[in-house]
Design brief:
The protein is built from ten helices and no strands. About 60% of the residues lie in helices and about 0% in strands. The protein is mainly alpha-helical and about 170 residues long. It is globular. About 30% of the residues are buried. Helix 2 crosses helix 3. It has a domain of about 80 residues: UraD-like (Orthogonal Bundle), CATH 1.10.3330.10.
Length: about 170
Amino acid sequence: MTSPLPLATLSQLDRDGFVAAVGAVFEHTPWVMARVWERRPFTDRAALREAMQAVLAEAARAEMLALILAHPELASKAALRGELTADSAREQAGAGLDACTPEELAEIRRLNDAYRARFGWPFIVAVRGLSRQDIIVAMRRRLQRSDDEEFAEARAQILRIAELRLDPLLAA
């Protein structure tokens, strides 16, 4: 990991430098931060967050769907094979998803399958601060929502994940 950047320095980077520094906060989707760059300079973290939120709100539905689909399923076979991004692997491990009991793993996979069958995309949640049981409860609850509610929730969760990933990249 590189040294955290002051926001003023980040705002002065050219597009390629900006995307190289912070583009990975959105899972496999650097175009989001490329568009955020167009809204600089950022006077504070709130301004940067607002720019990120605006870019996601203005994205075409197909673009948002591609961003949603770029996220891995929780406790997936890819996770077990070590195929997640470093950020995703660290986040899932932090929630204890790498230490599921066989019963928890089976339940999460069943819920993942039901969620994908219902909505057509993976269940996305910012796992920091959540336990495995919290995640299972959220999966069950969110399966009851409408497509539009879950699409909006996925966007909100992706923004939260990006904010959490961005925080250590920025100097205080």
